[in-house]
Design a protein that fits this description.
With 332 residues, this protein is an alpha/beta fold. The chain has one domain: SGNH hydrolase (Rossmann fold), CATH 3.40.50.1110. Helices cover 50% and strands 8% of the residues. The chain has 14 helices and 7 strands. The protein has helices at residues 2-28, 34-52, 64-69, 72-79, 94-101, 129-137, 148-156, 160-168, 175-183, 202-210, 214-217, 227-241, 264-278, 306-324; strands at 58-62, 83-87, 110-114, 245-249, 253-254, 282-284, 291-292. The strands form 2 sheets. It has a 5-stranded parallel β-sheet, with helices on both faces. Helix 4 runs parallel beside helix 14 (306-324). The termini are far apart.
């Protein structure tokens, strides 16, 4: 009898906890914290740029490494076709990122993806920030892309603490004004142009000098069994069907000799290369040529300053030349 009472108490407590969690989740849906609002507004800004460009166009797509470390206007000038910097945020899975970009890709377009290494994480096991928050508040139709297990995992990734923080950060004052100020730093191609900093912030520079990417040290493992490989292959097939030219390349990364201590730093790039080649996806350049010195970065190991971004983009142009030489662009 005592065990039955304990079981009933446990079930009652569990039901109450679930009810409180679900109630808070319902409250948080259609509302957002400051980060989610910013990411949504940034993507909406990207979609307007994508819609404004006539195809054939080139689209640069990835996380903030694309935003800060590539210059679409330089590629546009080099090849004479419209180019959009559609860099988003690395707290996004490959599955969700490509779901967002697909409606804006047309036949004849060229898609270049310099993916940050975390975008190769298993999208079924690592529920990224934007996968969790943006569908809840802005893109509920994305849930239709999920099977039942992924849907449950995504919803359960909303912890009590996180939902509480969301409730406490709703209705941030002056956000619209702050976002308009942020947009003033973007040019008409979507490049973030006001990061002309070299060594201005000693604290940030001290941090990035010692920071190592978890995917290259093995702290976060990416394996051949990652579900993201299947998503990449499906997306590649979709691009071929829609006559979209798909290219991958390596993200720019701050050079650090300490990577050599970790076997994952050579294993992971080799795995990425093997997987992409097996899917008949072209990958531009070599991993070892994607490292750049500290003076070309300003606040993270992925974010280059204006000097670094120009050098990096010029190298991308050289890598693209053999593949784009046969294209006939109306503006060239």
């Amino acid at each position: 009898m005592h065990s039955i009472k304990l079981s009933l108490s446990f079930l009652l407590g569990l039901s109450s906890a679930f009810g409180l969690w679900y109630g808070n989740l319902q409250f948080a849906s259609n509302k957002s914290d400051i980060n989610t609002i910013s990411h949504y507004n940034l993507w909406e800004y990207r979609t307007k740029l994508l819609e404004s460009k006539v195809s054939p166009k080139m689209v640069l797509c990835g996380g903030s490494n694309v935003t800060f470390s590539t210059r679409a206007y330089m590629i546009e000038k080099a090849f004479g076709l419209p180019v959009v910097n559609a860099g988003f945020n690395a707290g996004t899975s490959f599955k969700f990122l490509t779901w967002l970009i697909k409606p804006y890709l047309k036949s004849g377009d060229i898609l270049l993806m310099p993916l940050e290494y975390n975008l190769y994480r298993d999208c079924r096991r690592h529920i990224e920030y934007n996968d969790r928050e943006l569908p809840l508040s802005y893109y509920p139709e994305y849930y239709q892309e999920m099977d039942s297990l992924l849907w449950v995992r995504t919803l359960l990734s909303h912890s009590y603490r996180h939902i509480f923080n969301m409730r406490m950060n709703l209705g941030i004052p002056n956000h619209d004004n702050n976002f308009r100020l942020l947009l003033s730093h973007y040019n008409s191609n979507g490049d973030f142009i006001n990061n002309l900093r070299k060594n201005e912030n000693d604290e940030l520079n001290a941090k990035i000098r010692v920071e190592l990417l978890k995917e290259l040290t093995g702290e976060v493992m990416i394996t051949p069994e990652s579900a993201t490989w299947r998503e990449i292959e499906k997306f590649s097939h979709w691009c071929k069907k829609e006559q979209i030219s798909l290219y991958f390349t390596w993200p720019s990364l701050l050079e650090n000799p300490n990577y050599k201590k970790y076997s994952q730093s050579s294993y992971l790039p080799s795995l990425i290369e093997r997987k992409l080649i097996s899917m008949d996806i072209t990958i531009l350049g070599k991993h070892e040529n994607s490292f750049y010195p500290e003076e070309y970065f300003f606040d993270t190991i992925y974010h280059m300053n204006e000097v670094g971004a120009a050098i990096r983009t010029q190298q991308l142009i050289h890598l693209l030349e053999p593949f784009l030489g046969n294209f006939s662009f109306p503006n060239s």
